[in-house]
Specification:
The protein is an all-beta fold. It has 2 helices and 20 strands.
Length: 304
């Protein structure tokens, strides 16, 4: 299925965030992500707001437009791939900095998110956190940089201060042709998002290097948060072949106020330029346990 898209230019006022996530609270949508320039990647996370998922305003963060700014907690550079959630009467941000994972808290989705300046302890570099809650337990899906970008899961302490190392388990790594179209030495599976529907767990992830035009999104399913995970034969369900735009990937699943399911993600800036990456979303749905782009729906570009 091919969907038509519109190519934007720098003047089209796209927020230009990579690795995006959207968090809804009290009727307002909050957009966070990796800023596309090296300068701002070293400064923290901007946040934009919207009430209709189309037109966005900001940056609106409490600290000079940032929801989290360098100096508010752990990290000196490489601020990537945040996740926002509400837990124990606080707003939380799980994020990557210095190729480690940290967690900050705030009283508002606009921040300022802060922490004591420490990362989640790990014996290897780790990135791309996604925390999933079930039955009073918190599981952190994340990417360990060890013989490739490989997705792991571990249960967390109840205060989210640390992983329980005895629970650490690999979920997936690159095994399918679409996940490594350039036959590279260091393969990549990353950007995990996990949700549950009808007793089945879905792990949505991206594969290939983000600079590769074939960067794409697939999914795997399991009957336990730990797996074993079975990759879907329908993967990738978001790709340049389906959307006719390169570099589609690394996003998050969320629902609008009406319950419509979406995937927010980034694309390359154009057919010839990777950066700055652009922010988009598309309606998706589940039919007979198959995750897919909603029939007849096109990319929605986010604009300010």
């Amino acid at each position: 299925m091919l969907l038509c898209t519109v190519q934007l230019t720098a003047q089209d006022n796209n927020p230009l965030l990579a690795d995006p996530t959207i968090f809804e609270h009290d009727g307002t949508y909050y957009l966070y992500g990796t800023k596309g320039s090296k300068t701002v990647e070293g400064e923290g996370f901007l946040v934009y707001t919207s009430t209709d998922l189309k037109t966005w305003s900001g940056p609106a963060g409490a600290h000079d437009g940032f929801a989290f700014k360098k100096g508010d907690g752990f990290g000196t550079q490489g601020f990537w791939a945040p996740q926002i959630f509400y837990y124990n009467n606080k707003f939380y941000m799980a994020y990557t900095a210095d190729e480690q994972i940290a967690i900050a808290t705030a009283d508002s989705p606009l921040g300022p998110f802060t922490n004591a300046g420490t990362a989640v302890a790990s014996d290897v570099r780790q990135i791309d956190p996604f925390i999933f809650f079930e039955d009073g337990k918190a599981y952190m899906y994340h990417v360990r940089l060890d013989n490739g970008n490989r997705i792991f899961v571990a249960e967390m302490e109840s205060d989210l201060s640390a992983l329980k190392p005895e629970t650490l388990k690999e979920c997936i790594h690159t095994t399918e042709p679409w996940e490594d179209t350039e036959n590279v030495k260091w393969t990549v599976t990353e950007g995990p998002t996990v949700f549950k529907k009808d007793k089945l767990y879905y792990l949505v992830y991206s594969a290939n290097d983000f600079r590769n035009k074939d960067y794409a999104v697939g999914y795997a399913t399991a009957t336990s948060p730990y797996g074993p995970w079975e990759k879907s034969s329908d993967s990738p369900f978001i790709s340049t072949d389906k959307l006719q735009f390169p570099g589609t990937g690394h996003g998050d699943v969320f629902y609008d106020k009406k319950g419509t399911m979406y995937y927010v993600f980034h694309t390359h800036f154009s057919d010839t330029e990777v950066a700055p990456r652009k922010t988009a979303l598309i309606p998706i749905d589940l039919k007979k346990s198959k995750l897919q782009i909603k029939k007849g729906k096109n990319i929605i570009w986010l604009v300010i």
